């Protein structure tokens, strides 16, 4: 089937079209390729981009919607904690809370003064 005359003719035509458009290793194309960017639209208008109108969106309690506290960056991360003479890898799963549901500890920009407590899991056991 690959050696049939009709298939050879198809491949030859295909090769000639490519050579005419892009050239080959010895000759360059007859005219240079355009470097102008023309975005593809497909004949369909793109959907309009709807941006929020509020410049500083906040939740009902007054906290910013898009800015996470720095303390939340620890959640879902893997950290190494000293356990006796060894370092154990644990996954931080959330902030520790007391019986009333309040977060235990206070945040401070200085990591040495930060007293926030987190729940961490290692091999499906809770570490404190």
From TrEMBL:
Superkingdom as given in the UniProt entry: Eukaryota
Name of the molecule in the record: Uncharacterized protein
Organism annotation: Chaetoceros debilis
């Amino acid at each position: 089937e690959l050696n049939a005359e009709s298939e050879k003719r198809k491949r030859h035509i295909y090769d000639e079209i490519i050579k005419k458009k892009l050239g080959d290793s010895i000759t360059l194309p007859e005219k240079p390729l355009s470097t102008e960017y023309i975005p593809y639209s497909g004949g369909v208008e793109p959907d309009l981009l709807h941006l929020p109108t509020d410049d500083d969106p906040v939740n009902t309690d007054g906290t910013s919607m898009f800015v996470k506290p720095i303390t939340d960056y620890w959640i879902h991360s893997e950290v190494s904690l000293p356990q006796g003479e060894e370092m154990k890898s644990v996954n931080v799963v959330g902030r520790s809370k007391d019986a009333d549901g309040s977060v235990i500890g206070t945040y401070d920009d200085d990591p040495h003064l930060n007293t926030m407590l987190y729940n961490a899991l290692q091999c499906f056991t809770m570490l404190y």
